[in-house]
Amino acid sequence: MGGIGSGRYTRHQTKTTTDQAKRIDVRYMHQQGLLKPGMTGQLQWSVNGHPSGDIRYQTHEDHLSIHYQYRTAGGWEPIDERIAFSRSHCHFGGQRLWFLCPDCSRRVAVLYGTGKLFRCRHCHQLPYESQQIDSISRLIEQKHKLGRRMFEHYEYGSGWGRKKGMHQTTYERLLERYFHMEDDYHHQLQERFPELTGYL
């Protein structure tokens, strides 16, 4: 059922996305126990298994100090920055730790490095990967996600069999949404490629 959208359109990305930038994630560091005051260490990144950069850090009670080298036309420039922490109360007790962006003071979980400095995605104007996908490709991905949720068997854009444990009423509701996505897909495709009218 529903073999539409089994292919994949070429995605024309115009700028670096959050998935492509180096990142410092306060959640990851906290989970790994790296944010206890007085700790020092190194964060490293790699691309296709090859090192692509690293920074040294030192954790303090109210901030994280980072130290690294930035390559310029004239050589290497040492960078030393202080990233302040912020804390918020969780609904079920405890506190959640955040970074404060050094430029805009926005409370964020991740800082991104796409050039000389690590800043929030808003300051770097970094889109999420999903924001770079055109509407047809996004619709195809949403359709695949729904198909895998509702069909017992789903592959190559086709699905059959209600998912085990799913109520019939839920299945029928999702099936209506699924068919609506197919109709929307046809409509967008005909608008984008009118020469295909009569073949869809």
Overall radius of gyration: 23 Å
Structural class: alpha+beta
The ordered H/E elements are EHEEEEEEEEHHEEH
State the helical fraction: 25-40%
Give the N-terminus to C-terminus distance in angstroms.
16 Å
**What is the number of beta strands?**
11
Q: In terms of per-residue confidence, which ranges show pLDDT below 50 for 5 or more consecutive residues?
A: 1-14
Description:
The protein has 200 residues and is of the alpha+beta class. The protein has helices spanning 26-31, 121-124, 135-150, 168-192, and strands spanning 22-25, 40-47, 50-59, 63-72, 75-89, 95-100, 107-108, 110-113, 118-119, 151-155, 158-162. The protein contains four helices and eleven strands. The protein has a six-stranded antiparallel beta sheet with strand order 2-3-4-5-6-7. Strands 1-8-9 form a three-stranded antiparallel beta sheet. β4 and β5 (75-89) form a beta hairpin. It is elongated and about 55 Å long.
